[in-house]
């Protein structure tokens, strides 16, 4: 039975989802965050983990994620200098979004392949 | 304490999230589904509800959502003919994704405005 929302709840939900997608839009931001939630990584390690992303797009998405405080860029004064990207503490707030998306993706694949 | 995933779990999660975003990508698909989950709507009603979307993009996104069986297009033989879009039963599987995104959007707005 569909639980009916009030008009006000409905429009505030809609605004929240639009706001969330404004920050998280595109097909790469959430996979990058998920990859870093699993372990901090250098640029090239991220390139390998998030299959199909180009260096230019990865650099651009990392900058957006840093601006939204979801990713932190750590510079180590080694020789040569090494840069490691980490999921920020704030990115933990995305845990439920990532879990439900992952569950839905798995279910959708079963539905599509199940035919 | 971050619950560590095994390598296999991590890559399968990543693939699931990438698959989900392949279907749901862009900033309009989920808001359209949410609007229809709340009530079936004609094209112009959807245009009003999902603020900022253009007619061309709405028509395109509705077609993708129909192909992925998330939206149904109902034609009524009135004069003139009337067309109503409805969230499909399958779109209910997106309930958790929509809820967690909505919660995150609300929290993120508080964090950004809270400064």
TrEMBL record, chains A, B:
Q: Which organism is it from?
A: Flectobacillus longus
Write the protein's name.
Helix-turn-helix domain-containing protein
Give the UniProt keywords, A-Z: DNA-binding, Transcription, Transcription regulation
The HTH hxlR-type domain is annotated at 10-113
Source superkingdom: Bacteria
Origin organism lineage: Bacteria, Pseudomonadati, Bacteroidota, Cytophagia, Cytophagales
Question: SUPFAM superfamilies, per this entry?
Answer: Winged helix' DNA-binding domain (SSF46785)
The residues forming a coiled coil are none
Pfam families (alphabetical): HxlR (PF01638)
List the Gene3D superfamilies. Answer: Winged helix-like DNA-binding domain superfamily/Winged helix DNA-binding domain
Q: Which PANTHER family match?
A: TRANSCRIPTIONAL REGULATOR, MARR FAMILY
Q: Does the keyword Transcription regulation apply?
A: yes
């Amino acid at each position: 039975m569909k639980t009916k929302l009030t008009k006000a709840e409905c429009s505030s939900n809609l605004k929240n989802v639009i706001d969330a997608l404004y920050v998280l839009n595109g097909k790469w931001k959430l996979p990058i965050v998920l990859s870093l939630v699993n372990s901090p990584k250098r640029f090239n390690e991220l390139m390998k983990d998030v299959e199909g992303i180009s260096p230019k797009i990865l650099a651009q998405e990392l900058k957006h994620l840093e601006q939204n405080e979801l990713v932190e860029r750590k510079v180590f004064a080694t020789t040569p200098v090494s840069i490691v990207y980490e999921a920020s503490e704030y990115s933990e707030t995305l845990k439920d979004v990532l879990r439900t998306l992952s569950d839905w993706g798995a279910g959708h694949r079963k539905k599509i392949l199940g035919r």
